[in-house]
């Protein structure tokens, strides 16, 4: 059982807005925060440009290694870590797909927002199991960060 | 010794270390040494067929090894080799 993922309401709102602004394409970015003993906290996000080609962005997203290097530098500047990734599923459920699983890294939280007809319809967070066979869902806690 | 940097999500499979020193002659052998030292890393770096996973990118002194000689790229003791993930996904359907 993975730790709960705690996220501020304003941060989650920004993730939903990013998903809506990206609609009907997939939007994505990095979750920045802290890894605690009992929970993982997201205190900031770094929205990124979907690097997939025009014809694939409705059902695919890509964050390039160059963006990851930039994200790592931004996290260091803020005194945070990259603790996961967020992306949207336009007009599809906020469950990870088989393609999500094939590409998933362990340890990261994968927060997925379903965007239905252009409106964010809810988010769930997932983490790849050690054997890579499936994701397990993380409990999503809404609340302001207590540590920085 | 060549320094090999491990990204945050893979560190739990490498006893938490962020960097190790490796005495290999090329990138492929450096990965072999890494995974023989930390066997739990193997399934996250390689597919069951032994190919590097799609999200694994290797940068030698800030240059993508795909633009060099791939895993045959020679490394020297003062080089810095970094594993940088790319992130991808999306709902089911054709890529």
Q: What does this entry look like structurally?
A:
The complex is a heterodimer of chains A (148) and B (95). Chain A has helices spanning 9-22, 65-78, 98-103, and strands spanning 5-7, 28-35, 40-48, 61-63, 81-90, 109-116, 119-128, 135-138, 140-142. Chain A is an alpha/beta fold and 148 residues long. Chain A is globular, with a radius of gyration of 14 Å. The two termini of chain A are 25 Å apart. Chain B is an alpha+beta fold. Chain B has a single domain (2-85), classed as Beta-grasp domain (Ubiquitin-like (UB roll), Roll). Chain B is 16% helix and 25% strand. Chain B has helices at 27-37, 42-45, and strands at residues 2-5, 19-22, 56-60, 63-64, 80-85, 87-89. Chain B is globular. Chain B starts with a strand and ends in a 6-residue tail after the last strand. Chain A binds chain B through residues 26, 28, 52, 56, 59-65, 68-69, 81-82, 85, 87, 89-90, 92-93, 96-100, 102-108, 110, 131-132, and chain B through 7-13, 43-44, 54-55, 57, 59, 64, 84-95. Strand 4 (61-63) of chain A pairs antiparallel with strand 6 of chain B, so a sheet runs across the interface.
Ordered list of secondary-structure elements with their pairings:
The complex is a heterodimer of chains A (148) and B (95).
Chain A: E1 5-7, H1 9-22, E2 28-35, E3 40-48, E4 61-63, H2 65-78, E5 81-90, H3 98-103, E6 109-116, E7 119-128, E8 135-138, E9 140-142
Parallel strand pairs in A: 1-3, 1-9, 5-6
Antiparallel strand pairs in A: 2-3, 2-5, 6-7, 7-8
Chain B: E1 2-5, E2 19-22, H1 27-37, H2 42-45, E3 56-60, E4 63-64, E5 80-85, E6 87-89
Parallel strand pairs in B: 1-5
Antiparallel strand pairs in B: 1-2, 3-4, 3-5
């Amino acid at each position: 059982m993975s730790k709960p993922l705690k996220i501020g309401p304003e941060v989650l709102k920004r993730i939903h807005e990013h998903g809506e602004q990206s609609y009907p394409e997939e939007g994505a970015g990095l979750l920045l925060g802290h890894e605690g003993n009992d929970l993982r906290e997201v205190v900031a996000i770094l929205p990124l440009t979907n690097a997939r080609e025009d014809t694939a962005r409705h059902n695919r997203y890509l964050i390039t290694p160059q963006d990851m290097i930039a994200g790592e530098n931004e996290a260091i500047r803020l005194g945070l870590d990259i603790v996961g990734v967020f992306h949207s599923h336009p007009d599809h459920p906020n469950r990870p797909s088989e393609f999500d699983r094939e590409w998933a890294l362990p340890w990261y939280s994968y927060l997925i927002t379903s965007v239905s007809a252009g409106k964010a319809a809810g988010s769930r967070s997932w983490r790849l199991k050690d054997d890579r066979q499936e994701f397990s869902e993380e409990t999503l806690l809404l609340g302001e960060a207590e540590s920085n | 010794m060549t320094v090999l940097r491990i990204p945050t999500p893979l560190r739990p499979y490498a006893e938490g270390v962020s960097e190790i020193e490796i005495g290999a002659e090329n990138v492929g052998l450096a990965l072999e040494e890494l995974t023989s030292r930390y066997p739990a890393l193997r399934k996250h770096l390689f597919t069951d067929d032994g190919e590097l996973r799609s999200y694994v990118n290797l940068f030698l002194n800030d240059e993508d090894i795909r633009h060099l000689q791939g895993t045959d790229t020679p490394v020297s003791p003062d080089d810095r080799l970094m594993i940088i993930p790319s992130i991808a996904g999306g709902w089911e359907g054709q890529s």
